[in-house]
């Protein structure tokens, strides 16, 4: 019925992204668009000048990482064995040859994170078909003291999903079966390697949605999402995975299979150990199956793009939106004038919905409900009231899906625009909402106006700030002014230095900014208890010095 | 001068189209509906003409069930001054009937320009503009990608996108124009304008009042989905490929 040529034309000419989610970029969990290797490396001359990067070609004993973030030096743990022919023979025996991957090209991809920022030198990737095989792998690796890096879709941003040195990569991509779906309770049980987008389309046919949605959904796997406690844009509505994951099955370092695959919403029998595996980034065990509570799909989605004079108004607007929009509020995002300028300047396809004036802050509100006209009425009434009381200076409501996706495109285009603007230092922080923007202003004062462009945006509804410092090129002086200031500031206001990206390799040493030393000690004890040899995802999450 | 713009409410262009199980048409229950994008472009052009001082009033008109009022409300929020809704059951609004209603409305409102989208994205008919021009015996500029008005001479100069390039027409007003995609980029409905739109009038009329008989000259026999594309196969040799092209696809 709809002419295909018309659709193509509309996309070409208005450059509106037909499917919001496909563009749903990077904004939510990923903070930068992919960059070709050479371009990337060229921009990191500091890194290249460092002789320790030689390990890119050979297995080196020292890992030096400073890609736009403070340098962290990691030594290969000498107690880990290296792969020999007997190991390969054993793995081929238990898995069959095609699941034991030694092909250079495939290993190259698996060794490198998607931003080309972190690179390991593993010589072996295993792709088990099921829990039993994965259990046998871990049992063997543990007994041989072979370090292991669990890997899903490899879409992380903190170097958690790639080897640091020569760890064996255990990839879950073949474990991609949907086990069951209960249409009454909405509980989905599936294997860890299911790609998020496949789960979303599976549920779509049933009239349900996944409680999380993020830019990497076409590649990321549910096991990795749960292991990293991925956030994304639906968090304000459906909460974190600690709430929606009802159960899981995980394999410990020694190969023990821990079956916690409950599908009950309420289960107070003893310690709820599944939470240990949610967000521990594969350092305590490898998640093999997940049971997750999925909400019903609602058809009425409305989006408004608003302008506010100051940050206080954004906050008050959030306060009121939670009350007056209540159950239909599904996203509350903000960006500052600097972010808006970047997007308008660097992305051709974006136009300003509110061109009549320049405002300090922009807010994107999305509602999702079951009744198109009443939801729209509710949103309009709320916004008109906000306008009358001066919280909102101007605004527009999307009248159709193409306008809606163009509003989203502004928010989601920020990382891409930042990438085009030059060098960028990225921080993903949780800060109490009322203090959140103070950091951006403090950072601006600290850096001065001319040297770097400090940009603030993020999930205001979740108190999650994406602080980005954009500069023409990477510069040690700028970095020295940002770090450790940004971590200290966040720590002082009891914020978190990682809101939704995790610690991985990038921030393992920075954990103390957000956790007391007693807490970190307890984490280390748990790690030693579950993984005495420390073979699971070493050098990450917890400072390695605590575990040796 | 007054400009009349025809507005159609259609299934939103981003919605995946589903055929009703009895194959009588497209499923529209619980489906997001929006203004036809070409109508949006036509309205935007009318508003720009008004803003540049060539017109004094923009009237949006729509035919169909009650929900068309929502779409007309959008056109008021974009900047139309008032709207007319001709209430008619959705099955009856086929191009010729719409053209007759538009003609009747033109006789009531006496606009100097009637603007339409070149076609609607639901049925892709591309007929209404031409039909109403014929019924009114007005000159028509269809697929307009540029419109320039001369108020003194009462003439519209219209660029049309035709196969192989642009055609420029000079039309005496009053005239019928239909908008193509490249004519402009429609504006957003801003909050102050949504607020203003609430007090703008939407007049309700019936086909009977306009003395138009909503007669369907077309019978829809069946609506079906296009055939699904079958998965490809990887052939192992040139011989196999040639064999398949010869014997299966029968193209060589």
Automatic annotation (TrEMBL), chain A:
It comes from the Eukaryota. It catalyses: (R)-2-hydroxyglutarate + A = 2-oxoglutarate + AH2. GO terms for cellular component: mitochondrion. The keyword Flavoprotein applies. Its cofactor is FAD. Residues 118-297 form the FAD-binding PCMH-type domain. Keywords: FAD, Flavoprotein, Oxidoreductase. Pfam families: FAD-oxidase_C, FAD_binding_4. Its EC number is 1.1.99.39. One of its GO terms (molecular function) is FAD binding. Belongs to the FAD-binding oxidoreductase/transferase type 4 family. This is D-2-hydroxyglutarate dehydrogenase. It comes from Artemisia annua (Sweet wormwood). The lineage of its organism: Eukaryota, Viridiplantae, Streptophyta, Embryophyta, Tracheophyta.
TrEMBL record, chain B:
GO terms for biological process: amino acid catabolic process; fatty acid beta-oxidation using acyl-CoA dehydrogenase. One of its GO terms (molecular function) is electron transfer activity. PROSITE patterns: ETF_BETA. Transmembrane segments: none annotated. It is found in: Mitochondrion matrix. CDD domains: ETF_beta (cd01714). Gene3D superfamilies: HUPs (3.40.50.620). SUPFAM superfamilies: Adenine nucleotide alpha hydrolases-like. The keyword Electron transport applies. Residues 23-214 form the Electron transfer flavoprotein alpha/beta-subunit N-terminal domain. The keyword Iron does not apply. Keywords: Electron transport, Mitochondrion, Transport. Belongs to the ETF beta-subunit/FixA family. This is Electron transfer flavoprotein subunit beta. It comes from Artemisia annua (Sweet wormwood).
